[in-house]
């Protein structure tokens, strides 16, 4: 049975894979449509996923907290992630615009 | 697991390389388009304002692609903080977040203004 820290690392790595996956999709789009707006949307979505999974991993790491410094570091990451997610969600809405509204998957209000 | 961290570092470098390639290509395209604009034969039939719009279009296009490259840089930085979440890395991450947000905000404003000027003021 894998230990908890291994699971945490796997979750974080899954986030990394998602970021890279969306980046690759973005690069493909660069060649395909030459439209910077679409590429940006793809990369932003990847970063959002990566950050979300990173946050999950950080929260899980908190269970193994050893020092106050770790709590501070993870709180800071959480704050940056929350701010970025808010901004990105707003920007994504701006980029898509009222003309291209597509059904979004349900997301939690906490982000 | 060390293997995961090594892979993440590699992925981060890859994403950063993609950003660099995009910047290079965008700069190259902008340079070529700008040079073409300075050729007198091409501008023979165009008004002064038309030429200004063309130059601005080149600049805005470069700006948009640089914004894309900045998103890639952000992605690479997010990948790196997974490896070593020191205060330095977190600070860098926060700085890039602020930078990309400010850049995109002002860039979007410029694009919107250019669009309005080109298509004529629209009713609110």
Instruction: Quickly give the structural class of chain B.
Output: mainly alpha
Oligomeric state of this protein:
heterodimer
The N- to C-terminal Cα distance of chain B equals 56 Å
Q: What composes the largest sheet of chain A? A: none
Give the class of chain A from helix and strand content and strand pairing: mainly alpha
**Radius of gyration of chain A using CA atoms only:** 16 Å
- The helical percent of chain B reads over 70%
Radius of gyration of chain B: 20 Å
Report mean pLDDT of chain A, rounded to a whole number. Answer: 81
Stretches of chain B where pLDDT falls below 50 for ≥5 residues? none
Q: What does the main sheet of chain B amount to? A: none
- How much is the average pLDDT of chain B? 83
How many strands appear in the DSSP assignment of chain B? Answer: 0
Any idea what the shape of chain B is? Answer: elongated
Largest interface, counted by CB within 8 Å of the partner chain's CB: A-B, 37 and 32 residues
Number of strands of chain A: 0
User: Helix segment count of chain A?
Assistant: 3
Beta percentage of chain A is under 5%
Number of helices of chain B: 3
């Amino acid at each position: 049975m894998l230990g908890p820290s291994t699971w945490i690392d796997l979750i974080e790595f899954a986030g990394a894979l998602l970021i890279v996956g969306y980046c690759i999709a973005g690069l493909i789009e660069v060649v395909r449509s030459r439209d910077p707006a679409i590429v940006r949307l793809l990369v932003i979505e990847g970063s959002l996923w990566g950050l979300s999974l990173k946050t999950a991993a950080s929260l899980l790491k908190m269970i193994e907290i050893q020092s106050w410094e770790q709590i501070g570091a993870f709180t800071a990451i959480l704050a940056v992630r929350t701010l970025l997610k808010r901004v990105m969600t707003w920007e994504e809405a701006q980029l898509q615009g009222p003309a291209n509204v597509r059904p979004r998957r349900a997301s939690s209000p906490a982000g | 697991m060390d293997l995961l961290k090594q892979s993440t570092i590699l992925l981060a470098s890859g994403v950063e390389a993609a950003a660099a390639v995009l910047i290079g290509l965008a700069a190259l395209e902008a340079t070529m388009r700008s040079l073409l604009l300075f050729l007198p034969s091409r501008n023979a039939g165009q008004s002064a304002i038309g030429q200004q719009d063309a130059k601005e279009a080149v600049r805005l296009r470069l700006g948009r692609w640089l914004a894309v490259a900045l998103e890639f840089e952000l992605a690479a930085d997010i990948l790196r903080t997974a490896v070593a979440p020191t205060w330095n890395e977190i600070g860098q991450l926060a700085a890039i977040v602020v930078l990309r947000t400010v850049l995109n905000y002002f860039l979007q404003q410029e694009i919107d203004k250019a669009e309005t000027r080109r298509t004529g003021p629209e009713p609110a």
